Amino acid sequence: MENKSKNKIVAKKKGVVTSDKMNKTIVVAVNVFKTHLKYRKKLKSTKKYKVHDEENKHKAGDVVEIVPSKPLSKHKKYSLA
Questions:
Q1: Residue 49, domain extent
Q2: Structural domains in the chain (count)
Q3: What is the CATH number of the domain that holds 46?
Q4: Fewer CB near the terminus (10 Å): N or C of the chain?
Q5: Sign (positive/negative) of CA torsion 37, 40, 46, 51?
């Protein structure tokens, strides 16, 4: 049998870097619009993720794309795409 590479569907998220003060770690804020079940109004919710940045090249205000990865520390479970 051939060793076929499996194409995984990865949930990429796009967000803005809010903090770059840690070494090899950035904090990314991701905005998501959710719809209220009863009133059908769009609500904006923001969630912050700690992301692994190996080269420390991203600064606050940059727009980045993140993907889930294996846990790198207690809170860091995402890396840059």
A1: 13-80
A2: 1
A3: 2.40.50.140
A4: N
A5: positive
Mean pLDDT by 10 residues, the chain (81 residues): 66 96 97 96 97 96 97 96 90
Residue 36 resides in a domain? yes
Residue 21 amino acid letter: K
Q: Give the model's pLDDT for residue 3.
A: 58
The answer to whether 13 and 32 are in contact (CB under 8 A) is: no
Q: The pTM is what? A: 0.83
Sequence-separated (6 or more) residues with CB below 8 Å from residue 27? 17, 18, 19, 20, 48, 49, 50, 51
- Do the domain assignments include residue 1? no
